Amino acid sequence: MSQSNDMALKSQNTISKEELLALKKEMNAKAFTKRRIRTGSRLVFNIIVAFIMLLPLLYAISIAFMPSGELFTTELNLVPKNPTVQNFIDAFTNVPLIRFILNSFIMAGSITIGQIITCALAAFAFSFLEFKGKGILFMVVMATMMVPGEATIISNYLTVGNLGMLDTYPVLIVPYLTSAMGIFLFRQFYMSFPMSLYESAKLDGCSNLKFIVRILIPLTKSAIGAMAVYTFINAWNMYMWPLLVTGSNDMRTVQIGISMLNSVDSQSITMMIAGVVIVIIPSISIFIVGQKQLIRGMFSGAVKG
Amino acid sequence: MSEIILRNVCKQFDKEHYAVKDFNLDIQDREFIIFVGPSGCGKSTTLRMIAGLEDISDGELWIDGELCNYYEPKDRGLSMVFQNYALYPNMTVYGNLAYALKIRKVPKKEIDERVHKVAKTLEIEHLLDRKPAALSGGQKQRVAIGSAIIRKPKAFLMDEPLSNLDAKLRAQMRVELAKLHKDLATTIIYVTHDQTEAMTLGTRIVVMKDGVVQQVEAPIQLYDNPANLFVAGFIGSPSMNFFDAYVEEEKGKTVLYLGDQSGSRKVYLKGEKAEIARARELHKKVILGIRPEDIYEQKDAEERGILEDTVGVEETITAREMLGAEVILYFDKKGKSHAVKLSPENQTQTGEKIRFYFDPSRIHIFDQGTEENIFYREEIR
Amino acid sequence: MNTEKKKKLNWTPYCYLIPCMLVFAVFLFYPFFKTIYLSLFLTDKMGQAKIFVGLENYIDLLTSESFRNSLKVTLIFVVIVVVGGMLLGLIAAVLCNKAFPGIRFFSTAYALPMAIASSSAAMIFQIMLHPTVGIVNKLLGLDINWLNDPDTALYCVAILTAWLNSGINFLYFSAGLGNIDETIYERASVDGASGVQQFFSLTLPGLSPIMFYTLVVNIIQAFQSFGQIKILTEGGPDEATNVIVYSIYRDAFFNYRFGSAAAQSVILFIIVMIITLIMFRIEKKGVSY
């Protein structure tokens, strides 16, 4: 120990103990403030950017609580002076919002469940089973991702029109009961399991269906969670197809329903925004609850894949 | 000329937890210093503090007489080789080698010359156009070393650079690193958990445990003269055997009773060791340490003239490992496994009994409480 | 025995594909080919193919001023949406790259637009851009009728769409940043690279694989934007926002010219396909890892 002291002193000959101590104190303080500033500026930047990104939503919430008279001033009115829930009540009474929400839930829920089932089955076949034309079929499925929905929407509309299916639940749901992306996502997950998992289950006398239900589904909960969140949100937010195929209030989904509020006279802007806030709430809550799942199941995989 | 001095360097995570505590070391120019220890002992943290990748919570880091605690990593004049090589995946091998020079705005022509020179030294000239993803582990390793040496730094810091290679490549790279150290004539600070690397490469080894330096010594001194129980057990493979023992006096001689105080198995100490043991631990329980190669069978013990000093220990062999140049026999004692290294002519099989004799001059005695080697003497440099 | 086994191997796998293939067949393959078929005909108001006209629909489109305007508008729209959406996502992802207090809140905030429907967002923007009560005019002290001015309407709709797409881009870029090996930054800081140098020589190239993927997804998505245009501008003013998808919608469901609309769908598909193929070609050459 003593010899290392001597060594250190040798190189310290230009600096005294007190000076060193003072220097250390000063530099530590500097490093501390530097770190503070760094974290602080990061925080400030984030607050600014996040505020801009959230501005439309915050603004919508503010307007939704604003009495309609308050909106029509030339002065800057960011927050309601006399907050009211009247707009929400009006929105519910002016259009059958509850019915729209119910329709949307039925549609988005069915699509989500349906997609998970069909995609899981197909992905199972594509990753664990051997059959003729597997490669080509998979290519065909993947190629469908390139076809924009609008390229088929006219023919689809004519088809369901001819079948007399317009303005029913099935017409909202059935065309979306599968998705190439879902098949791809599940297959990515299944491929990460060794083939021996399937083979040993087979040896234990497990049927294919039993294998899927008992083994595959529990093992791919995160993929299913991600898929569910993503599919539900997209279905909830669907616009063009429901617009085309629904005609009556009984069948309209929320996205079409609230645009009906839009066509009413401009006096009811606040009511319309209240309606918008109401229909945003379900998709945002599902997103916030499922965000972790979504990122883990979908995006970490997408990058590697 | 580079001299790196660490004075009472600490890394503190919170009020009570230290990753590294009071690390003192002076590294002279051209030394090959090894930080070794089990995982989580703070060796990598120390290296990263020297590099500037971690803040130093307390203490001082001097590089060539300059206080470097608060220097940015780039201003410390060091270069580092990372465990996973940390090659830039988007650049070719050439780009990886040239990057540090490019950043420092070295003229293009000089960069080119130096890249080719380094590539030649490391025999990676034919790889210059490749991307890291197209390289094997050994090649990546060379590129990583190349991009460290190209800057002609004051010292190299290497964080377990060989741990991702397979055993054969590792042995090969070890030899090359030793050669490189000689050719470059620069200080290297090298972190590893592999004691073979530590023993073969280092001019001095720093053994760490729980953030505290246990011993700093040249490899052979470390092996022969471990400061405490931990160092003794950590360095050497198979590791040192430890037995409970009692220091007693018998007709003026200092004797160690093995296992219990009955005296059925004992070793007589001689010379200085006897005196120290008697002075410090008489009638006390101690831990006796002896390396596998310092235990002999009867024939060899006779030849070495140590037969009289030991009342042979008879043991039942539980496992036998034939390594070609030597054979290692294992026996169990109070739930602990012990190893003996003998010449391959020994034919004792598993389940058979054999008598062993300890070389008393090679015995270490550790204090039961402090776990210090009572024979340890700090080398005077 | 052998044949029996073979038969079994041959048929069960297809059963698992039936549900998805059935949906694809009825609602994707069949309409896809039917669209191509329709595009070669003049149709009646019920969408029945009546008179075979060959490529006339296409020729009419490509020579019509309105459709060429549509193409131009779509192109500008897509460029703004893709560049804007990706830039927003990238900025947010870089800001959230390192841990700091509140990171969870901010990352949720940045990803949030992906949960919002285009129609809802459009209605909010409609009020924000409202000439008298809108916050934009109030904050900027301007008096612009954003959505009724042919010079600004397209940009407004595009920026709205970029905002909507930024959420998912943020998630992609965050995942991409998370995949960059942390130690290369450490090596770079020892090598002497400053933060800015690190960003341009390590972060951006490190993001290039995901950047490419995101770019393709964004382009495809941008071409398909519909709800916000329907609600905010209905293709106007003066066709300034009449992107192809809206033009398809208008031709088919207002003018009942299904043949022409089908031809536009086919052209849209071809454009998307060509861009995708070109992108993949470029990727093979450029973004290698």
What CATH first level of the largest domain in chain A would be assigned? Mainly Alpha
CATH topology annotation of the largest domain in chain B: Rossmann fold
The biggest beta sheet of chain B is recorded as: 6 strands, mixed
Q: How many individual β-strands of chain B?
A: 21
- Which chain pair has the greatest contact? A-C, 90 and 95 residues
Q: Compute the gyration radius of chain A: what is it?
A: 29 Å
Task: Count the DSSP helices of chain B.
Answer: 10
Instruction: Tell me the CATH architecture of the largest domain in chain B.
Output: 3-Layer(aba) Sandwich
Pattern of helices and strands of chain A = HHHHHHHHHHHHHHH
Helix content of chain B: 25-40%
The end-to-end distance of chain A, rounded to whole angstroms, is 56 Å
CATH topology of the largest domain in chain A: MetI-like fold
Mean pLDDT of chain B: 88
The proportion of strand residues of chain B reads: 25-35%
User: At the first level of CATH, what is the class of the largest domain in chain B?
Assistant: Alpha Beta
Helix/strand-derived class of chain A?
A: mainly alpha
The name of the CATH superfamily of the largest domain in chain A reads MetI-like
| Largest beta-sheet characterization of chain A | none
Low-confidence stretches of chain B: none
Overview in brief:
The complex is a heterotrimer of chains A (305), B (381) and C (289). With 305 residues, chain A is mainly alpha-helical. Chain A is 76% helix and 0% strand.
What does this structure look like?
The complex is a heterotrimer of chains A (305), B (381) and C (289). With 305 residues, chain A is mostly helical. Chain A has two domains: 2-64; 87-300, MetI-like (MetI-like fold, Orthogonal Bundle). Helices cover 76% and strands 0% of the residues of chain A. Chain A starts with a helix and ends with a helix. With 381 residues, chain B is an alpha+beta fold. Chain B has two domains: 4-233, P-loop containing nucleotide triphosphate hydrolases (Rossmann fold, 3-Layer(aba) Sandwich), CATH 3.40.50; 234-376, no CATH class. Helices cover 27% and strands 31% of the residues of chain B. In chain B, helix 2 (93-103) packs across helix 3 and helix 2 runs parallel beside helix 4 (137-149). Chain B is elongated. The model of chain B has no long low-confidence stretch (mean pLDDT 88). Chain C is an all-alpha fold and 289 residues long. Chain C is 73% helix and 2% strand. Chain C has helices spanning 2-38, 56-63, 65-95, 103-111, 118-128, 135-140, 153-178, 182-191, 195-223, 227-232, 244-253, 258-285; strands at residues 41-43, 49-52. Chain C has a two-stranded antiparallel sheet with strand order 1-2. In chain C, helix 9 (195-223) packs antiparallel against helix 12 (258-285). The radius of gyration of chain C is 24 Å and the shape is globular. Chain C starts with a helix and ends with a helix. The interface between A and B is medium-sized, with 15 and 15 residues.
